[in-house]
Amino acid sequence: MSQMIFSHDTELTLKAACVLINTDRVDGERLDGMPALDEYLDGFGWTGRRDGDDGELDSVRRLRERLGGIWSVAGDEERTVGQVNALLSDTRASPWLTRHPEMPEWHLHLASIHDPLWQRMGAEMAMALADLIRVGELRRLKVCAASDCEAVLVDLSRNRSRMFCDTGNCGNRQHVAAYRERLREESVSDGGADAG
Questions:
Q1: Fewer Cβ atoms within 10 Å of its own Cβ: the N or the C terminal residue of the chain?
Q2: Nearest to residue 115, comparing CAs of 67, 191, 59, 166?
Q3: pLDDT tens per residue, the chain (196 residues)?
Q4: 3 within a domain of the structure (yes/no)
């Protein structure tokens, strides 16, 4: 059984941030209307106010772009800290402990359930990123190593060895390509030996 590296809340929120960012990095715009947004929100258990209008969808897309910007500068700790602090400030994050019947463990909420959706999401995601920074694990924020993929990932493996995203089957594609390249090289070297 794998153990969590961070709290359940932090890991789930970091995964939610990745999925959100990747909604326009793989196969075009996938956050193309309220049904898609609702599916995403329900999939990660986001609670509280939902306006269900174009303004809300646009604000979540702007948050997505901002989060993508944080991933893109993750190699520069000072810039990342500046962007995370700005997001915490802009969302007016105000932490408080709560629990629900379906989740009896205490966990943090960082905005009121009445605040706009992007604000609640942004506060939670900024705090999860702050957790990563506090423990010196910013290098867990990665862009997929596949040359034809721009998806982001959060590497929650114990040894930080994850290189490929979950969105485009990139890991399998890269392994198959490497295997085929090895076969070609073996074929060429075997053919060269026979020719001599």
A1: N
A2: 59
A3: 345 678 888 999 999 999 999 999 988 899 999 999 999 999 998 988 999 999 999 999 999 999 999 999 999 999 999 999 999 999 999 888 888 787 778 888 888 889 999 999 999 999 999 999 999 999 999 999 888 889 999 999 888 878 888 876 685 555 555 556 666 677 777 665 554 4
A4: no
Q: Is residue 1 part of a domain?
A: no
Neighbours of 88 (CB within 10 A): 19
CA distances, 6 to each of 20, 34, 139, 142 (Å): 20, 31, 14, 17
Domain that holds residue 126: 8-195
Inside any domain, residue 133: yes
- Positions of E strands within 110-167: 141-143, 152-154
Beta-carbon contacts of 36 under 8 Å, excluding residues fewer than 6 positions away, are 23, 30
Element (H, E) at 109: strand 103-109
Maximum separation of any 2 CA atoms in the chain, in Å: 78
DSSP string, 22-90: GGGTSSS----SHHHHHHHHHHTT--S----SHHHHHHHHHHHHHHHHHHHTTT-HHHHHHHHHHHHHH
* Residue 78 CA to its chain's centroid (Å): 20
CATH of the domain at 92: 1.10.3300.10
